[in-house]
Amino acid sequence: MEYFVFDMDGVLVDSEPMHQKIILEVFQLKGIPFSSDYVQTLTGMSALPMWEKVQRESEHTETPQQLLEFHRAYFFDRLPSLEVVAVEGVKEVLALLQKRGSHIALASSSGRKLIDIFIEQVGIASYFEVIVSGDDVRYSKPNPEIFAKVAAWYELPAEQFCVIEDSTNGVAAAKGAGMHCVGFQNPLSGGQDLSKADLVIHSMSELLQCLKKRIL
């Protein structure tokens, strides 16, 4: 395959623990009685659908939009003190794909502002031909809309793409779009069920070897 689509959080950058920590802090500040185990079930979701789910299930008095705005302001206030690093080995994967002429896209539930900050921070922004963010879709993963938009941008059928995802929601979205999917079992992303992926890897070096052997 020569068309690859990368999720960001937990695949390109090890930011999932940071996101989960911030969400849990917001829960505590807002008196929402959910645990870190619950937070892990939200991995891969866009911000507004996530807060709609939280508000509905917690029966919190504020609206999802109010909770989202508080979360966003709190996150960007904390961001200067937070450090994000590239997932080990992912730069080598991106460099190999670029060298062999593959097309590389990014499809993340995060907002475009945050995507731009993170990929610039870790020095990988130049690899991506197209970026589709949570701002660009109506429906969050596990809905396949975000991956359908990538395929539409290239004007190609979904089966020509290979998605690399680290979350249950992300894998479901990729398979729902009709794309091949590699599940990356990143221990920092929590106990994600990747059983619906076509292939499960446990490190980027494993993905690199698959690419070198032309398994993908």
Set down the secondary structure blueprint.
Blueprint: E1 3-6, H1 16-30, H2 36-40, H3 47-58, H4 64-78, H5 90-99, E2 103-107, H6 112-121, E3 130-132, H7 145-154, E4 161-165, H8 168-176, E5 180-184, E6 199-201, H9 204-212
Parallel strand pairs: 1-2, 1-4, 2-3, 4-5, 5-6
Helix pairs in contact: 3-4, 5-9
Question: Could you describe the 3D structure shown?
Answer:
With 216 residues, the protein is α/β, with parallel strands linked by helices. 44% of the residues lie in helices and 12% in strands. The protein has 9 helices and 6 strands; from the N terminus they run βαααααβαβαβαββα. The protein has helices at residues 16-30, 36-40, 47-58, 64-78, 90-99, 112-121, 145-154, 168-176, 204-212, and strands spanning 3-6, 103-107, 130-132, 161-165, 180-184, 199-201. A 6-stranded parallel beta sheet has the order 3-2-1-4-5-6, with helices on both faces. The longest helix is centred in the first third of the chain and has 15 residues, at 16-30. The termini are close together. The model has no long low-confidence stretch (mean pLDDT 94).
